Amino acid sequence: MVFTRNWHNEIDQDDPDLLQIVINYVHYEIFLLFKVTITKEYTIMRVKDIMDATPSLIRTTDTFEHLIKTLNEVKYHVVFVVDKEGSLVGVVTEADLIKVLIPKYLSFDEFLISAINENYFENKCIESRALPVTEIMTKTVLSVHADDTVIHAASLMVMNKVRTLPVMDDGKVVGTVHLINLMQHIMEVLQEAGAVKESSV
User: I need a surface site. Which of 2, 24, 66, 160 has the fewest CB within 10 A?
Assistant: First the structure.
């Protein structure tokens, strides 16, 4: 039987057998449509399933010069600052570094940009070489636990407009979850969904 777009106007509403066939057909189509969702409903993905297990760490005793070299080499261009016990105390991004090299008064009046010495940026770089990481880092750090769900991590990123989160376990940084990791996870979900859909046809 082939149903047209307006099948509900074409069938005999008083024919219970035909109506039941239509109902069964619609239920079957709905089942196919949501089969992947139904199958995956009980497969809860955790942060530890998608995270990068090699977080980039620096010590509170490190300096601006060491920090810039590290940030230039790490994968996600963000490093987490830990103390001598290995506890997370801060995070540094490229934006945090640039803020150090820009006059603070610019946050009050952007028209003052024209008054900045043309060599200010370069001079500030040299001047800041020995600046402690603790004076550069952001001390308030959002984090997720390795056993948190993927949707929990994704929601934190969206709500707080951040691209990277440290992954904690037993008080230590054990990984990094970045938007890249989420994108890779999305691709895997779609690929698997496509494979399931094809096998069900």
Answer: 2
CA 195 to chain centre: 25
Query: pLDDT for 53-102, tens place per residue?
Result: 999 999 999 999 999 999 999 989 899 999 999 999 999 999 999 999 98
> 184: closest CA among 50, 18, 29, 86?
50
* Listed residue (85, 90, 70) closest to 139, CA to CA: 90
Other beta carbons within 10 angstroms of residue 47's beta carbon come to 24
Distance from C-alpha of 3 to C-alpha of 194, rounded to nearest angstrom:
25
Q: Report DSSP letters for the chain, one per residue.
A: ----TTHHHHS-TT-HHHHHHHHHHHHHHHHHHHHHHHHHTT---BHHHHSBS---EEETT-BHHHHHHHHHHSSSSEEEEE-TT--EEEEEEHHHHHHHTS-GGGGT-GGGGGGS-TTHHHHHHHHTTT-BGGGTSBS----EETTSBHHHHHHHHHHHT-SEEEEEETTEEEEEEEHHHHHHHHHHHHHHHHHHHHHH-
- Provide the residue ranges of all domains of the chain, joining segments of one domain with +: 1-29, 47-188
In CATH terms, is domain 47-188 a member of 3.10.580.10?
yes
Locate tokens 């969206």: which residue?
A: 158
Cα Rg for the chain, rounded, in angstroms?
Answer: 27
